[in-house]
Write a structure and sequence with these properties.
This protein has a single domain, classed as TIM Barrel, CATH 3.20.20.70. About 45% of the residues lie in helices and about 10% in strands. It has helices at about 10-20, 20-30, 35-45, 90-100, 115-120, 135-150, 170, 180-190, 195-200, 220-230, 240-250, 260-270, 290-300, 315-325, 335-365, and strands at about 65, 70, 75-80, 105-110, 130, 155-160, 250-260, 275, 305-310, 330-335. The structure holds flavin mononucleotide.
Length: about 400
């Protein structure tokens, strides 16, 4: 049966499922524990209803804005996704190219496959770098230096991963386990995806952690990654370390993984230029609230003092509009771009972003706004439920 043309994030997800070995699809798709927070993230946006307005001149609609000091064609940033280079051949480079042609920022993860230098060589605009704090501060300084040399001027420091979450799908697929049973399971999964085996596993190498190759020379697979993360990510990090980071990074500093207004205030105090309201896409603590429901209180606490981005469960251009109506300046997206990458590479991401921009434009026209800066609580139905929207 001929495959239909993928249009939505859900369409790309279905295609990604058919392209990727099961353990990789599950690593990408899954969340922590029973995945309640993961699902809540998605449904919370759908519950935000909008006000249709008519007979407004919406001939000239502009989706452009500025995020992290960088001009963007729409208020969307590709979030850091570890191991994206396992989803498609040199995946981070493909995603960067799609982001560059869409006119939005791409964020390279600390645990990406492609190294900073490879991404830089393909870049036609500055990209963002995401940092996890590693125990050895010398290595962190070295990474920061390399990121700066590669032209990155926005650093996304992730603060919600003192330890990786309990991702049961990964455990079920034998990740982190050794022995014949786990190896056989994964081998079967790989052999059932010959396209992936040929294009990514055989022709897409090296499949190592490009930015950590000196730190983890043997890190060739998900098991090694997990072992390295477990031993090297630094759970002692506090606000004091953010001050250290502030001194070592002259560019824009964004803290990703803030979910409480109190922490958002702290972020402002330590000099963060921006925050990402995030629960890591429901991959850390299953049981925390959806980001859409936490956003308004954070906007009320620090809106105007720092730039507020949000991520988690955003699945369409209309969701982007909803996030802005609730007071965010922009959004990050994780799974949607990685699904599109796995399904159709750079072209897949390009198509998805074009469709989202059109959805965003349509939402603006149908609610009677023509500029990103004008989107706010006036476009929300049931405003009383979201009193803190801007
Ligand atoms: C497969 C996968 C890998 C991720 N890796 C990272 C990472 O390396 N660094 C990071 O800060 N966040 C990481 N995240 C979280 C995303 O940056 C983002 O917060 C999350 O995906 C947003 O939710 P969404 O996927 O529903 O859009 C990852 C998410 C996924 C799905």
């Amino acid at each position: 049966m001929a495959m239909k043309i993928p249009v939505t994030a859900g369409d790309f997800r279905a295609q990604a499922r058919s392209q990727l070995p099961r353990f990789l699809f599950d690593y990408l798709d899954g969340g922590a524990n029973d995945e309640h927070t993961l699902h809540a993230n998605e449904t919370a946006w759908r519950d935000v209803t909008l006000r249709q307005r008519v007979l407004v001149d919406v001939d000239q609609v502009d989706t452009c804005t500025t995020l992290g000091g960088q001009a963007c064609v729409m208020p969307v940033v590709l979030a850091p996704v570890g191991l994206a280079g396992m989803m498609a051949k040199r995946g981070e480079v493909q995603a960067l190219r799609a982001a560059n042609s869409a006119g939005i920022p791409f964020t390279l993860s600390t645990v990406g496959i492609c190294p900073l230098s490879e991404v830089e060589a393909a870049a036609s605009a500055p990209f963002w770098f995401q940092l996890y704090m590693i125990r050895d501060r010398g290595r962190v300084e070295n990474l920061l230096h390399k990121a700066w040399q590669a032209g990155c001027r926005t650093l996304v420091f992730t603060v919600d991963l003192p330890i990786p979450g309990m991702r049961h799908r990964d455990t079920r697929n034998g990740l982190g386990a050794t022995g014949l049973r786990a190896t056989t399971l994964r081998l079967q999964q790989v052999l059932s995806r010959p396209n992936w085996l040929w294009n990514v596993a055989l022709r897409g190498g090296p499949l190592t952690f490009g930015n950590l190759s000196e730190a983890v020379p043997g890190a060739r697979n998900l098991d090694a990654f997990k072992a390295w993360v477990d031993s090297q990510f630094d759970p002692t990090v506090t606000w004091v370390d953010i001050a250290w980071l502030r001194q070592h990074w002259q560019g824009t500093l964004i803290l990703k993984g803030i979910l409480e207004a109190e922490d958002a205030r702290h972020a402002v105090q330590v000099g963060a230029d921006g925050i990402v309201v995030s629960n890591h896409g429901g991959r850390q603590l299953d049981g925390v609230a959806a980001t859409a429901s936490k956003l308004p209180a954070i906007v009320a606490a620090v809106g105007g003092q720092t730039e507020i981005l949000v991520d988690g469960g955003i699945r369409s251009g209309v969701d982007v509009f909803r996030a802005l109506a609730l007071g965010a300046s922009g959004v990050m997206i994780g799974r949607p771009w990685a699904w599109a990458l796995a399904a159709a590479g750079e072209t897949g991401i390009t198509d998805l972003l074009q469709s989202w921009q059109q959805e965003l434009r349509l939402a603006m026209m149908m609610t009677g706004v023509t500029e990103i800066a004008s989107i706010g609580c006036a476009q929300l139905d049931h405003v009383s439920e979201f009193p803190a929207g801007k």
